[in-house]
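User: Hello, can you help with two protein structures?

Assistant: Certainly.
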Amino acid sequence: MAGKCQSEAGVPREMEEEQAEFHTLVPEFLKCFLGDHVYPEQMDCQSRERECQLVQDLVSRIMARVHECNVELFTGEAILVGSQAQDLHVRTESSSSDYDFLAPIQYNTNLILMGSLYSKLYTPKGLLPVWDSLKPGVPVYRWGNKVVVDYNKLIMRDLFERKTVDVDLTEEDIKTINDRQLQIWKNSVDPYSVMTELWECVQEALAEEKRNPAPEIRNIRLENTVGITPISPAVQLSAEVDGRAVSIDLVPTIRNKVDMSMDWPQQDLKWLSDWWDREQGTEQRKPTWNIMEIYKTGTDLVAKNSYWRLTFSLAETQLLKDIDADGGCRQKALRVLKQINMEKWVLRYGKVLTSYHLKMVLFWASDLNPETENWATVLDSLGTLLKVLEFSLEKRNLPSYFLPSMNFFDWHRSEEENSLKNLVLEVLRLEVRLMRCSPERYLQLSYDLAKPQGPGPFIQRARELDEFRRKHQKDFEKFKHLKEEKQPGQGAASLFFAQHRHLGSCLQLNVLR
């Protein structure tokens, strides 16, 4: 059965009695672990709520000044998303409280999602045109989680709509195409430029904030002090709020322009059937969440790495609102995994598995195992999550819940980095397999609370994990250094982006010819 060691049969009676006595202590141990390691800050709800309100007030003041700085671009809104909005935040002793905000911009052109791309077009761009004559809207495509525009097709469509007869392109047509392309480029919403403008406006807003500081907030500053590059994920701030360190990410956002993907929800989950061990003919129950409410929430676009990308952060918040309405312990179990990942796995192997990946595991596990008995206790919930996580690591496949064709474990890096990454995924699988065998013993071992004793599958798997760690320790260290050094040269990236942007019309014209 899911979440249990398969080799417990045939255990001597005295060992069975010892294990039975041990397992009666599990709920109490997990309760203590949750209180001591996972969410001690949750215990003081009043302080957490006060910190969250102070941060939201600070960001509201900043965004109001950003709006004054550029009325035509920024709405002045700030929408809290992520773990703080979803009550899933955990932190280590040395880490800060992380706050993520969407910063909506003004964008009035309609977007029409035409379909998905599975290979890169020769001429797709991440810039979104602002053009009143583009009726009924701009045709866009989904490429992974990016939204791209095929400018050649866009201009050709516009050109032939003006022609009465479909004929070969004339010299006048070529000149028209060139002029139109130049105009569209000049009037496009460029994610990199928008991010840069937000950074500059936030810098001005902070100067005003420092002249009139709130008494509870100190040492507020921009983290990306030298400016924004095409690979910057957000405008990042740090501050002390009520004496505690916080980090704040602001991401430019285009709201309510793209419908929820037709890829979601998947009605036929046979392709994921290895994620559960149902008997033949057993009916698959559907999740309890309200799909129409999630559809109404929709999806937005965020500026990231020189593209506008789909984000489902508000849909995720809506989905999580009632995920434990049956009295289950899904969110408590997820916090345990997030804490283990932050405090143990990331430090040991590098940041391969993220908090967002674990949230996807929760969504899939809830979808595939909706029965209340799978989530009745923290131990049950951990077993259900670990089953899905172990399978994902084994198959090197963790699909996005909202875009199942996207695999978060499918990297397109150098052969060396991919090889090292696969070693990390394998050692994480061994960690998860060991934890799934006995979550309470795994936590005791990981936090030096007790040494495992006696024979059995847990000891055997612990030895296999330890042997794999020792064998590949140098590989893990090498991978961590590769990750740290892999950032592209800012000068080269900026130069490429400038060429990509300003010479685009010439390149596309050559293609047409």
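That covers the first. Now for the second protein you mentioned:
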Amino acid sequence: MRRIFAVVAVLVLASGVGVVGGQAASAESGGPDRSIDGLPGSGPCSTDPPATHASLIPERLEVPIPYPRIIEVPFPAPETPTIRIDAPPLPADPCADPCPDLTNVPLPPATGLSSTLGLPQISANFTPFNFGIPVQGSGNGPLLPDPPVPAHPVTENAPLAPPLAAPRVGAVTMVAKETGASSVNRTDKRWQVDGTDLGIMWESEPGKIAVAFGDTVGRDFHPPGGQGQDWRSNVLAFSTDRNLSNGMSFDEMVQDSRCHAAEILGSRKLDNVEITTIPTSGFALGSRQYLSYMSIRTWNSIPGTMFTNHGGIAYSDDGGQTWTKDPYAQWDNIFGLARFQVTAMVPQGGYVYMFGTPNTRLGEIGLARVPEDQVLNKSAYQYWSSGTWTAVGGAASATPILSGPAGELSVRYDAGRDRWQMTYLDTAKTSITLRESAAPQGSWSESTPLVGVDRYPELYGGFIHPWSTDGELYFMLSTWSDYNVFLMRAELS
């Protein structure tokens, strides 16, 4: 109900619909060349209507009303079959709908007094808030592998580097709408991805970028948020597009059926047990892909935040088609206060650095590192604690490298400048901010706002594209009112 009041209050400040990229995006203006460097058939359709931002006053709003339910919860979770198909090539004509029988099915027209008067259709969505009773599973779950051999890393000095000046940011423009209807990727037509968020990127192999998204819906999608049918906790796309000035085209998505993006990390979808599983970062070491994730217990905690079961690591040995959640590489959320629930992991110099915050978007930032060949071995992690790398005390020993509030980290190592970049949502400054440092532990520069709520009132995310340069920072932005993802460009000097 608080969400409804907030939306109504904003009407006075910002109502109506805006054209995407209207402030500077050449991809939306129709003038410059909109050619895309991805595979044939990828990229935008020239006859699609212009992408627009949804009004902050939604046409339809489902108000979740939780009710208590006691339920047996089997442990381990039952194993569900994994179905994958080879992604067929896209039609040569980007405007061709590859599956009109699936994506062009009309929905029943809106009826009732609200639609007649042009008012939001508000409905109650009664959802169970579960109190789980653990029970023994049926025995069809996966067999646990042997645990890693315990490691005993020594304590090492890790002094702070001198602080850098705050980044100098010039114009920040919206390049293109990346997902949903009228996006440069037409994901609603090609993969039944009508609404999604995040857009976490890493180089999965030379010349290819993987893009992981959060909760995703298809048919009957209606923002704000992920309202609609065909809910998947996450999906994964791939891109070889190097010309980001007019948008980032997707060559393919991991699919489980014709024109349907697959959920790559399963979840129980039981509120207050495990409602969903959300990717937080990704990286590749050799042929193996890694994905950090958070197991969300419930969204019904502090408004706008989340409560996790644990942060964890999954891996893929088949190019991202199928994933395994490692049973030992998990950081439990003890008393709801544990760090490293929402993490950004970056390989550099023989180590993988793990930047992490507690659940919610309000916590401080901690740091750990692990040798590249020990990523799944929790005992091999060293935590930065007051000038040292130490395993003593585990994750609880980590001292903050930055104070909060910080949410949804994205970290990149810029090899050309030997410099670290970090973006995150700073809820105190109501903006996505950028910092830089000469070392992962800091000292980190003062933050510089990239984009704030004055332009996009319900923004979040801010995930850096790995192929950004010293003069251009590309990042993915999500908005709750659109519940889709947009490519942004920031000029750096």
